[in-house]
Amino acid sequence: MESLDRSKAVIEIGKRVVAGLKLSDDVTAQWMAHLVAEKISAAEQASEVTRDAAASVCVDVILKLWAHRYTLPPYMRPLRELNPLLRALNSLGVTDEDELRFFSRSPTSEELDVATEDEKKLFEFAVGIDRVARELIRHVLSVAAERSVDLVRPWLEEAFKGNLDVDVELRIVRFAVEGLMKGQEAAERTVMLDRIYRMENFANAALLLASEMRKTLPQDVEGLREPPD
Predict the structure, then answer these.
(1) I need a surface site. Which of 4, 49, 115, 157 has the fewest CB within 10 A?
(2) Domain-terminating residue out of 52, 76, 100
(3) Quick check: is 225 in a domain?
(4) Which of 87, 94, 75 is nearest to 23 (CA)?
């Protein structure tokens, strides 16, 4: 029964692949869609005697295509809705280890013992920047990826049933979903107010720091560069 359920799940994935490939005018995509659709049709219309063999051939074709999905052009790739989020995460250098953090951890009080009071304030400011920036990045990316996550959810459900490899996609979806969940938790007034307070403090501190940095510029440099939009 388990093998039959897995075959059905893989074939459902194949149907989704075919539907996606048919959206393209690419000749290769059309050929691949025809091949997979042909194997699916043969498996579903086979007699009891040949059904297992036909299903096995069909599943094998789909699994081979799935295994090489990253080599397909972006517009033909299954789960391509996650591509924008993946590219954004790659550009940020995000890994499971750093989790959008510049600091792997905050400095301990013992580590700050040798620092002056002014240095401690700057270190605390840097840690605060890291915390606020991490929350902003996660929130913005999660909101941007919300539609994509909804679109790929049925893919992932069938992929799990079919025991297909979706490690990369799952990590991306988990990142987005966790961000959305945090955003929902932030709907509680006290949590939301705390986040707003931290962000406003960060913005004010950044403006103050920019003002101090501007004072260090020579008079003839001031005003040469227009502020960004």
Answers:
(1) 49
(2) 76
(3) no
(4) 75
Instruction: Clarify whether residues 123 and 186 are in a common domain.
Output: yes
Which tokens in the block code for residue 161? 């049933």
Q: Contact 94/178 with Cβ under 8 angstroms?
A: no
**What separation in angstroms does the CA of 62 have from each of 21, 144, 158, 227?**
13, 31, 13, 53
pLDDT at 153: 81
Task: Please give the tally of structural domains in the chain.
Answer: 2
Measured CA distances, 71 to 12, 68, 75, 146, 194 (Å):
21, 6, 11, 26, 45
Tell me the pLDDT tens digit for each residue of 138-179.
Answer: 777 777 777 777 888 888 878 878 888 877 777 777 777 666
pLDDT at 185: 53
Lookup: tokens for 210: 């920019």
Residues 60 and 147 in one domain: no
DSSP code, position 229: -
Q: Which residues contact 63 (CB under 8 A, 6 or more apart)?
A: 10, 164
pLDDT at residue number 42: 92
Does the structure show a pLDDT above 70 at 60? Answer: yes
